[in-house]
Design goal:
This protein has one domain. By secondary structure, the protein is mainly α. 46% of the residues lie in helices and 9% in strands. It has a two-stranded antiparallel sheet. A two-stranded parallel ribbon has the order 3-4. α1 packs across α5. The protein has 8 helices and 4 strands. The radius of gyration is 18 Å and the shape is globular.
Length: 213
């Protein structure tokens, strides 16, 4: 009952209330981001959601548009300013995802939506992380966030899918609030990881082929 009906109803109520209450924050942040980082204020990117269906994830932008002498954008780490790092460390950049939750693309709690380019590299078991809507926060985020390795992150995601319940979601939300207030388990790059998943998985496959794994 909770998984099928109540969870979605709570998502609608909470996201709508959050958008209304935080509307002044949206306006202020939007204005500051426009001045400090330029436009567009909202960053959007395709991510896989429930059943692997693609949707546009919305965030406040946290990087500038600086380019090299050839006119190409600099690497992400070079475009992430101190202001952008503060946005990510406080999770303020993720506030627009409340719109994703209201629309039904996401849920308040669930596995974080990762990059589309990772899809071909999941194992059959790992694909089950898409059996539920992706979350604004999740079990992996409250147990280490982006300080975890890929195998640990997916293990938490699959544990969530198998044991999804109201009490688990409540625990995740409460723990998330605590971690955001303490700024714990946050790297300066927000969701950035030291090694992209596709690079990590290719390395795994190469290691098995070479006999080093």
């Amino acid at each position: 009952m909770y998984r099928k009906y109540i969870k979605r109803l709570l998502d609608i109520i909470i996201s709508l209330c959050g958008i209304l209450v935080l509307s002044p924050v949206y306006l202020i942040l939007g204005a500051v981001i426009r001045v400090k980082l330029g436009s567009p204020v909202i960053f959007k990117q395709e991510r896989p959601g429930k059943d692997g269906k693609l949707f546009y994830l919305y965030k406040f932008r946290s990087m500038n548009n600086n380019r090299d002498e050839k006119g190409e954008l600099l690497p992400d780490e070079a475009r992430l300013t101190s202001f952008g790092r503060k946005l990510r460390s406080t999770s303020l950049d993720e506030l627009p995802e409340l719109w994703n939750i209201l629309k039904g693309d996401m849920s308040l709690a669930g596995p974080r939506p990762l990059l589309v380019k990772y899809l071909p590299w999941y194992t059959e078991e790992e694909m089950h992380r898409h059996d539920v809507r992706p979350g604004l926060t999740g079990l992996a985020q409250v147990n280490g966030r982006n300080t975890l390795g890929w195998e640990e992150r997916f293990a938490y995601d699959l544990e969530y899918v198998r044991h999804l319940s109201f009490l688990m979601d409540l625990k995740i939300v409460v723990m998330t609030v605590g971690k955001v207030l303490r700024h714990s388990d946050v790297l300066s790059g927000g969701e950035m990881v030291t090694v992209d998943f596709d690079v990590y998985r290719r390395g795994q496959m190469k290691g098995k082929k070479d006999g080093t794994l």
